[in-house]
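Inverse folding, one chain.
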């Protein structure tokens, strides 16, 4: 049998047979495996990478802890500490990335990118914001220079407010509004924040993580203001049937929040597909084509600053970022981080929403 096997192997080599190389595998948010995000990889290797998606990071984390794996993951920055501590990811050699230097300093040095040893664990891909959208036809007193998150607690608009259900968005926003840093909060400060949360629940018409529901409520005039990500603002502007003026609030005396999603290198990267393909997959998401797609089709700002130079002026206006100085603009926002005692906070926020706290 050994002779037959050796003859068969010799025939394979003589006929030019070769085993197809494995492709890198991306595990990321739903839709972040769209073709523009992987086109650079396709052009480089003449094949599509493997992709799979998750709907939220808790789902992804649990699946990875249970044994699922890929080469590159797509979490947001605040997830990095627990993914690193769980041994799911490994340090990234940025010298192997073509587009690393295209990322603004403020993003390359944001919380979550480096550890205290100077190792890189996270590569920013895109960033968006959390603030409040206001219909200035229905609430003109909050337009322009009068932008204020006070509208969420204004008795005049009780029952006409929409709020995000996610603790990672709403708790820091409410805390910041009363001068509390949710990322370094004492027990007494948390009690103060809970008071405002209870008031907010009473004010709200709907509290949801389905952004389309918030947008629909705005478009139908059911609410005058909603806490939302900036892509919801874009969707309202793009809605041809909705003609009321809206603003994405940037209060004078209040920093809005910035959240950053990106890439992490799996702890098993390089075991099936060559490690170079994993780095190419990260570079693919950072490509100029991917950056343009983020701006023009998603309404989000790309980490690769070169994308601002190729996107349409109309699309650039909608992402609300001052592209002439991205670092300065981001410095006037608050990067989302991990809240200490997050599990406890989430549990208590759920009770407050249910009206039993």
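Residues assigned per position:
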């Amino acid at each position: 049998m050994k002779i037959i096997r050796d003859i068969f192997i010799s025939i394979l080599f003589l006929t030019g047979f070769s085993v197809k190389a494995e492709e890198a595998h991306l595990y990321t948010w739903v839709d972040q495996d769209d073709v523009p995000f992987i086109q650079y990889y396709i052009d480089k290797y003449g094949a599509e990478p493997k992709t799979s998606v998750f709907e939220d990071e808790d789902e992804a984390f649990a699946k990875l802890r249970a044994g699922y794996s890929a080469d590159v993951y797509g979490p947001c920055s605040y997830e990095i500490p627990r993914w690193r501590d769980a041994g799911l990811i490994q340090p990234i050699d940025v010298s192997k990335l073509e587009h690393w230097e295209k990322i603004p300093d403020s993003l390359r040095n944001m919380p979550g990118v480096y550890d205290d040893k100077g190792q890189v664990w996270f590569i920013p891909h895109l960033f968006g914001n959390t603030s409040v959208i206001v219909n200035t036809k229905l609430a003109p007193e909050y337009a322009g220079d009068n932008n204020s998150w006070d509208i969420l607690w204004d008795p005049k608009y009780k029952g006409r407010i929409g709020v995000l259900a996610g603790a990672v968005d709403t708790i820091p926003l409410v805390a910041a509004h009363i001068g509390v840093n949710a990322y370094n909060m004492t027990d007494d400060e948390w009690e103060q924040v809970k008071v405002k949360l209870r008031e907010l629940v009473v004010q709200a018409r709907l509290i949801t993580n389905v952004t389309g529901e918030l947008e629909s409520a705005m478009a139908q005039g059911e609410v005058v203001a909603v806490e939302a990500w900036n892509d919801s603002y874009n969707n309202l502007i793009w809605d041809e049937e909705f003609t009321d003026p809206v603003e994405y609030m940037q209060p004078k005396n209040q920093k809005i929040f910035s959240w950053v999603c990106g890439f992490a290198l799996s702890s098993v990267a390089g075991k099936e597909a060559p490690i170079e393909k994993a780095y190419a997959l990260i570079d693919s998401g950072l490509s100029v084509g991917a950056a343009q797609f983020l701006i023009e089709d998603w309404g989000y700002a790309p980490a690769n600053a070169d994308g601002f130079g190729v996107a349409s002026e109309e699309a650039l206006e909608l992402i609300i970022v001052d592209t002439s100085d991205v670092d300065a603009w981001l410095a006037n926002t608050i990067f989302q981080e991990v809240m200490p005692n997050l599990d406890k906070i989430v549990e208590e926020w759920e009770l407050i929403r249910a009206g039993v706290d």
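Residues 219 and 242 are 6 Å apart (CA to CA). The longest helix spans residues 187-203.
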